[in-house]
Amino acid sequence: MSDEGNFYDLFARHVREDPGAPCLETPDGEVWTRRRMDAQSARYANALAQAGCTPGDRVAVQVEKSPQALALYLACVRAGYVFLPLNTAYQPAELAYLISDAQPRVFIHHGDRPEVLERLDPGKTPSRVFSFDAHGAGSLERLFAPGGDVFRTVPCHGDEVAALLYTSGTTGRPKGAMLSHRAMSHSALTLMGQWQFSQADVLLHALPIFHGHGLFISSNVALVAGARLLFQPRFDAGEIVAALPRATVFMGVPTYYHRLLADDRLTPASCDRIRLFTSGSAALSAEIHSDFETRTGHRIVERYGATETMILCSNPLDGERRPGSVGLPLPGVELRIADAEDQSLPTGTIGMIQVRGPGLFNGYWALPEQTRQEFSADGYFRTGDLGCFAADGYVAITGRAKDLIISGGYNVYPAEVETAIDEVGNVLESAVVAMSHPDFGEAVVAFVVPVDPATPPTPIQIIQWCKARLANYKVPKQVHIVGKLPRNTMGKILKAQLRAWLTEPGPALQQSERPETRAPE
User: Fold this and answer.
1) What is the rounded CA–CA span in Å between residue 170 and residue 33?
2) What's the rounded Cα separation, in Å, for the pair 434 and 333?
3) Range of the domain at 505
4) Distance of CA 48 to CAs 55, 76, 100, 162, 165, Å?
5) 412 in any annotated domain
6) Per residue in 44-67, pLDDT tens?
7) Is the entire prediction scored with pTM above 0.85?
8) Which of 46, 225, 299, 374 is the most buried (most CB within 10 A)?
């Protein structure tokens, strides 16, 4: 199988081979065959063409997870449109920026009239806006035509962009990573081989599909292998435990495993048919790794990747699955640990993780200079993560060069949250850091300096302000009102000091009005 051409071709070969084989099953027992998925994606592709889309156009999609939503993704890929998935938790202000930046031809939304449209400049409004509910019903399906269940997949070169996925940037503004057909194909084929996926596998799929992990890793690997998806609309620990006996593979984030361990029904017997558990999107603690093995007899395979790079490393299927390590670089991935001058460092030395290979993104949308700055002179992408090699080649992630927070597997850039908080009345300035969280891995914590200490905003006011403007995973779980923020001689806020206050509160934090205010989950 080749990683050149349209990514959809890798799924289409299974459709031709056995069209009646199951592709996907919903919790209520509805089965989608390969033929049905192919036909539904054809209907959407034809509908989007009727709406005026041409190859290369962006199609922005903010819809609930469903089989129809997966078919919509496949429709965009096979038609040569650039698929832009948007988190369903994004608020209008967040959406307005992304749509203004990407300028999609079409916006498909889970509501009737998205509020975001009122915030857009007239020249940046999508040409067409369609509704699409949790079952795929809405105005888009009104463009379905008789005989529209056949669509000729658009031939394309592997370098052509298949998807645009936004990721946090150094300014706090998300950047659109352009992912090619080749990158998606190479990643799916490589993981299929490394994790020994086959048509006999059943993937219990509980991840969201607006995220790279749930869409470009989990779904893509299953589709390319011809495996079946048990397609859960969301993660629910009880429902997952109940479904495990019918699956062979489960992919999750550390938060999922933490919640599964809290369910007494998780036993070796419930996992008897599972051959592989994987974890990604955030660091898996050694404690969860050990507890899960003790409880189930299974050692989770931890792996490592990024929006711009797909998957870079994985602990082996056959071999040591080392707690605290993301495993070995995958075939085709050139990974090095480098210093500030992009020179390789000796084994055991911590430095910047840099990579190159066929799974890398094409660059950032409309940001050629930013793209150039993120690559070394010899073509390695600087991931922003810090790590080191062990003597036997295993890679450990030791931290992040940037202040990115990963909460429940989702990226949160502090500057975006700080900007929202600073708009609150009587806030002079704010600083956001991560704190350890038993469920989410990391959670957002805000330190806020009021203009007038005599009448400071309350933590709950700040939390509610953020909830109205940001996705919930970006909302601070704690807010501390402080007299001032610690700074160095150059005026830079010492975020390490703020993190230290959380574990060893000093006088500044002890004077906080309410030192621990939790946001509603």
Assistant:
1) 44
2) 30
3) 405-510
4) 11, 8, 20, 15, 20
5) yes
6) 999 999 999 999 999 999 999 999
7) yes
8) 225
